Amino acid sequence: MKMKLSETAGQISVPDASANLQQWLDYLLAIHPQEIELGLERVAAVAARLALLVLAPAKVITVAGTNGKGTTCRMLELILQQAGFRVGVYSSPHLLHYNERVRIQGVDAADADFIAAFWQIEQARGDISLSFFEYGTLAALLLFKQAALDVIILEVGLGGRLDATNIIDADVSVITAVDLDHQAFLGNTREQVGYEKAGIFRNGRPAVVGDPQMPNTVAEVAAAKGARLKQVGVDFHWQSTDEQHWRFSGSRWQLSQLPKPRLPLANAVTALAALEALYDELPRAAIEQGLRQATLSGRMEHFCEQPLILLDVAHNPHAARYLAGQLQTLPRQGKLYALCGMLKDKDIQGVLSVLAEQVDEWHLVTLHNERGATAQTLRQALPATTCCWQYDEMASAWKALSPRLHNADVVIVFGSFYTVSGFKEVVQAIGKE
């Protein structure tokens, strides 16, 4: 029997024992329709009832940042696993399946595990209202505690100070980069954003910052909280030694001839600084293997080689600048096509202007959700002389673009998690036809 979300006397019915994961997710969205509600009081109260506020003996690494959180978490995860630790990772958003948000020993959590966790949270919360993200965070913590892990890696969802992940006192706090995004919640300056992200710092514990232009507020928060600030370029350094290798220099670790990862090197540097802050030493082989193996869906993901199709969730100017730099390094003889969809609350002009001169043809797609921007809105952010096509949906965009491609061409699919996931769903559907 499938659960039906019915309202009785102003209340929405709780899923029954036969409900599947999607029905639970629909329920969680329905009971707290406000998608983002920052604050720790409600989620901390429920976490206390579930005895989730202390996860010891597991070590906790919390990772915040405008960009680079996911890739930093991925490199931390793989290095630690290679070193023999049992590791859990909580990240968001997901690309195709909600299960991607919780990984234990590299494996996505099963539907049944989420359902059991949601049911336990539902019983514990009483009349406390929780957002969709807060439910997910508590579910992750429950699953991690049950799994008896050595290390738990928490990716901050939004900001840091008031994000649900901040109910946990991290052993090491990390900020990857600070730039403008989610201004309605985090502020309109890098100083304001830095203040919010530094809210994850803890007294007497390492606070690792991988942004070379660290806002002053980050240092101010670290000092006020008594955190042990470790900043790139000051407390740890790196140097590219050749096309394939680099050197890390920390307060204790001196590692040369490290393999360059496929993920952003700046985030590898930050990951190693976080690990150095947590451990006296780790096997060099574990570090090398973790760096070599690290890839992450939607982060400069090589979806196809001929033509080269790259998927990247870049959706703010900081990420767009990194993407532009990566595209410049590609040896290519054909055209560069962009397949782009964005959310209307992002800096569309700032993102597209970074890439406008590199792209030969733009294929712009309307994203159909309440935050989605239309293809026409994207078109208005590009110069009038730009070669553009506009589409109402991803399927029609790809069906129009794909016959135009030659093996020497490059396609970058970017602009949002929704864009990348939508593209993958379309290609999968076409493959099944």
UniProtKB/TrEMBL annotation:
Q: Which reaction does it catalyse?
A: (6S)-5,6,7,8-tetrahydrofolyl-(gamma-L-Glu)(n) + L-glutamate + ATP = (6S)-5,6,7,8-tetrahydrofolyl-(gamma-L-Glu)(n+1) + ADP + phosphate + H(+); (6R)-5,10-methylenetetrahydrofolyl-(gamma-L-Glu)(n) + L-glutamate + ATP = (6R)-5,10-methylenetetrahydrofolyl-(gamma-L-Glu)(n+1) + ADP + phosphate + H(+); 10-formyltetrahydrofolyl-(gamma-L-Glu)(n) + L-glutamate + ATP = 10-formyltetrahydrofolyl-(gamma-L-Glu)(n+1) + ADP + phosphate + H(+); 7,8-dihydropteroate + L-glutamate + ATP = 7,8-dihydrofolate + ADP + phosphate + H(+)
**Domain Mur ligase C-terminal: where?**
298-417
Q: Which UniProt keywords apply?
A: ATP-binding, Folate biosynthesis, Ligase, Magnesium, Metal-binding, Nucleotide-binding
For activity, the cofactor(s) needed are: Mg(2+)
Domain Mur ligase central residues, every copy:
63-234
Show the SUPFAM superfamilies listed in the entry.
MurD-like peptide ligases, catalytic domain (SSF53623), MurD-like peptide ligases, peptide-binding domain (SSF53244)
Q: Which GO terms describe its cellular component?
A: cytoplasm
Q: Does the keyword Cell cycle apply?
A: no
- A GO molecular function for this record? dihydrofolate synthase activity
UniProt-listed PROSITE patterns: FOLYLPOLYGLU_SYNT_1, FOLYLPOLYGLU_SYNT_2
Keyword Signal, does the record have it? Answer: no
Question: What Pfam families would the database entry show?
Answer: Mur_ligase_C (PF02875), Mur_ligase_M (PF08245)
InterPro entries xref list: Folylpolyglutamate_synth, Folylpolyglutamate_synth_CS, Mur-like_cat_sf, Mur_ligase_C, Mur_ligase_C_dom_sf, Mur_ligase_cen
- EC number(s) in its UniProt entry? 6.3.2.12, 6.3.2.17
- Pathway per the UniProt entry: Cofactor biosynthesis; tetrahydrofolylpolyglutamate biosynthesis; Cofactor biosynthesis; tetrahydrofolate biosynthesis; 7,8-dihydrofolate from 2-amino-4-hydroxy-6-hydroxymethyl-7,8-dihydropteridine diphosphate and 4-aminobenzoate: step 2/2
Q: Which GO terms describe its biological process?
A: folic acid biosynthetic process; tetrahydrofolate biosynthetic process
Which superkingdom does the taxonomy of this entry point to?
Bacteria
Please state which protein family the record places this protein in: Belongs to the folylpolyglutamate synthase family.
Subunit note? Monomer.
> What is its biological role?
Functions in two distinct reactions of the de novo folate biosynthetic pathway. Catalyzes the addition of a glutamate residue to dihydropteroate (7,8-dihydropteroate or H2Pte) to form dihydrofolate (7,8-dihydrofolate monoglutamate or H2Pte-Glu). Also catalyzes successive additions of L-glutamate to tetrahydrofolate or 10-formyltetrahydrofolate or 5,10-methylenetetrahydrofolate, leading to folylpolyglutamate derivatives.
| Name of the molecule in the record | Dihydrofolate synthase/folylpolyglutamate synthase
Q: Which organism is it from?
A: Shewanella fodinae
Upper lineage = Bacteria, Pseudomonadati, Pseudomonadota, Gammaproteobacteria, Alteromonadales
